[in-house]
Amino acid sequence: MKINQYGIKRVVLKEAKQELNQIGFLADKDFYDSKTLWFDFLQKSFLNVRDQSGFINKLGNFLVSETMDAAAFYQTTEPLTNEIFYTMALQLLEFEPTIDFVPEKVLADAKKLGVPLFAGDFTQTDTIIEAWYLLLTTHTKNGLNYLDKLASEGYYDNKVIEKPLFFNGKAQAVFDTSRLIREVVYVEAPLDTDQDGKRDLLKLEILRPIETEEELQVPTLFTASPYSQGVNGPAGEERTYDVNVPLERKEPNNTTYEEIKYQPKAVELPAEREVKGQATHATETFSRESNYSLNDFFLARGFAVVYGAGIGTRDSDGIQTCGSTEQTTAMVAYIEWLAGNRRAFTNRTDNIEITAWWSNGKVAMTGKSYLGTLATACATRQVAGLETIISEAAISDWYQYYRDNGLVIAPGGFPGEDADVLAIETFSKMRNAGDYLHSKEFFLDYLDKMAELQDRQTGNYNTFWDERNYLPTIKDIKCDVIMVHGLNDWNVKPRQVADLWDALQEVPVAKKIILHQGQHIYINNMPSLDFQDMMNLWLSHKLYGLENGAKDILPDILYQKNTETTSWSPLENWGSEQKQTYYFGKEQLDAERSSGSVTFNDQLPVEQYEKYTKDIALWEKELKEPGAMEGHRYLAKTESLPAEVFLNGRPTVKVKVASTADLGMLSFELIDFGKAKRLKPVPDVLALHGLPLGRKWREDNLVEFKLGTADEYKLISRGHINLQNRSNPWKVDDLKADEFVEIEVVLQPTLYHLPAGHQIGLAVYGTDFGMTVRGNQAIEYTLDLAESRLELPINKE
After folding, report:
1. What does each C-alpha distance from 769 to 336, 413, 611, 721 come to in angstroms?
2. CA-CA distance, 245 to 242, in Å (whole number)?
3. What is the pLDDT of residues 768-778, one digit of tens each?
4. Cα torsion 70, 71, 72, 73: sign
5. pTM of the full predicted structure?
6. How far is Cα of residue 117 from the mean position of the Cα atoms in its chain?
7. Cis ω on the peptide bond leading into residue 219 (within 30° of 0)?
8. Between vectors from CA 762 to CA 619 and to CA 608, what angle results, nearest 5°?
9. Whole-number pLDDT of residue 20
10. Which residues contact 217 (CB under 8 A, 6 or more apart)?
11. Which residues are identified as catalytic?
12. Burial class (CB in 10 A: 0-12, 13-18, 19+), 50
C-alpha cells in the first residue's frame, strides 16, 4: 500500500501555529518542552478517554520502538526522536507494525508508504509543531487525512469553532449534517420543450447547512443528473435496437461540414409567469436524494449541494432531448438561479417566488458520465456563477459516443443503445402517470423524429450530432476545469476526455486532468490517492475564494501506472511527439517493410456467430488467441521488447485494404501480450462503509485497484471505421469491390507501460461483437502488408 498525496499545502511555522491554535491543538503560550508538547497533542487526539490514567493506558497499545511501548516511554526521561515520532505517527495513520512497517526501519518504510516526513531536531518544540501539523494533513491507510479522521470521531464536538473553518487550505468537517435543510424549488427555464404554451419549470433538490439560517452564505455543488429522478429501464429495453443486422452500402456524396453545421434557430418563448407572492422558505421537501458521495463529503464542510434532473424528468416540465442545446439551457437555468439571475417558485402552480438567499453565488458542477457531460456543456455557455467543473468520465462529443468514423458504435456494454433510447430511459416523467398523460403523444412523436435524425442507417455525422458536439464551443469556456477519466473506459471512451483536454490547451483557463486505469467509475473513495483532499483544496479556492495556491499545488496531469498497485505520478504532457513505426508482416509487426498480403473473412460459421452474439467476452478472448478466429482476423505481434515501453498518446493505424463487397468496415485492437498480473479494471472493495464523510454522517465503501491473477494479454486501445468514410464522418466515399483504398484510423488515446519481454500486438478484423452491427456478411478483407503500418507514440523516459 502506498498513499499518494498531491493536495497538501506546505506552510511556514507561523501559519502552522496559527492554524493549530485555531482548531484547539496549540495553546496560546509556548511553555512546553518538545516531548511534553507531543504527548499533549496525542492526548487531544485520543478522543475516547477523558482522564490521564485512561490516556496512559491507551498509550500502552502503541509501540515507539521495537522494545518499548508509548506508555513506558511516557514515564522515561529519554528525549523524543524522529524515529519515535514516526513510529507512533504511522500507527496513528492506521499502518501496522510488522505488517506495513518495522520500527527499526521506520523512516525508510514511511517513505515507501508515501508518508511525508518532516526533517528537524525533534527535541525542539517548533519541530514538533511543524511535524504534527504535517501529520494532521497526511492520509491514513484508510482514506481520510488524519485531521478528517479525528473530525469523524468527534474532535470538534463541544468546541466553539468559527464556520466555515479552513485548515491547510481546505474546508473542515465542522458543519452539523444531522440538521441539513432539504427543500425543493422549481426553476423557470427559458424553454418550452413540450410546447404547452408555458415556460418549463424544473425541479431542484437542495441540501444546505442549517447554519445558513444564521446568515451564513455558502457556495454550491451542483450535480446535473437526468437519472436522479429515476429511469425507465423497460421502456429503454423495448426501444433498444437489434444490432444483428447487416452493414449497408451508402451512396457516395461530397457533403461538406458547412452543409451540416448546426445553426441555432430563434425560438419565441411564452411570457414569464406572473409572480403572485414571495417566500423565503420552500414548501416541499424530500427524504433522500440520489446522492454522490463526493458531494456528501462537502456537505459536512460548509457547501450546499443541489441535484437537478432537468427537462422531461419526474416533477419537471418538458421532454427529454439527450444532449441537445435545450438540455444544456435547462441545466444553465439552475446555475442562474443559484447565482441570483433567474426565478424559481415554491411549487408548479402558485407562482410564489423564492430566491437562493443562502447562496454566495458561486457554483461548481460535479458528477460522472451523463452528469459530467452536462457540466462540460454548461461550461461552454459562460454562465455567471459557474466557477469550475469537475467532469468525470464525461462525453465531449455525442457522435463519438454512439458513432465512430461513419459507423454505428455502441458504448461498451450497451449494444443497441442510441440517443433516443437514452432519452426515453431518462424521461422519468413517465413514472408520474398522470403528468405523463399530458405530454405522452408529443414526446413519442419527438422520439420518432430523433430516431430519424440520429440516422442509424448511415452512421454519418450530421446536424443532429453537430448540435451535440461540445468541442467547437470549448473555446468559449471561462471557468476552470478538472477532468477525471478511466483509460479502460469503453463506455465513455478515453478519446472524449483527450479531445476536451486538447481543445482546452488554447483556452486561458486553469485545467487539470486525472487519468486512472479503471473503467466507468468514480475514484473519490480510493485510499491510495487523496482525491477528496485535492478537490477540497480546489473548491475551497474556487468557491470560498481562499488563497491556498491550489492552481499551483495540484499537478496539471496526474495518471495511474498500469503495472503496479497504488502508483500515481504527475506527467508533463499527454501525447508524445516521438513515434515508433511497425510495419505489417504475415504474423509479425516489424521495423522494416514486408511484402505480400493477408486476407480474412468476416463471415463466421452460424453456430460460432450465434455463440458470440450471446457471449461477447468469449469473442473478445478468442479474438486474441490461436484457434477459433483464425482466418477471420489479422493478428500480428512485435518481437519481445528488450526494454520497457511507455505508450503516451494516440496510436495510429494506416492500412491499405480491399473488400470483396462495395461496402465494409474495419475494427482494430492494440494488445499487450505477455504473461503478467495486471490491474483489474474494477476496484476491489476493501471495507464496506469504511470511509466516513463527516461526523455521524454518511459513509462510502473503501475500494482500490488490485492485481488479478496472471493472464496472457490485455487490451490497450481500439478503433473502428466505415471504409466509405475514409475522408471524414460526414462525407461518403465510393468503394468498389476488390479495389484497394488507403485508410487511417486514430485509436483511443492511452497511457500504458509495456514491461520488457512483452509483445505489442495488433488485431485487425471486421465485426466488433461488442460495438458494431453484426450482420455476419460474406465479406473478405485483404490487407496490403507493404502499405500497412502501426504508429505508436512512445515516451523516451
Report:
1. 44, 10, 11, 14
2. 7
3. 999 999 999 99
4. positive
5. 0.97
6. 31
7. no
8. 20
9. 97
10. 357, 358, 359, 360
11. 369, 489, 520
12. exposed
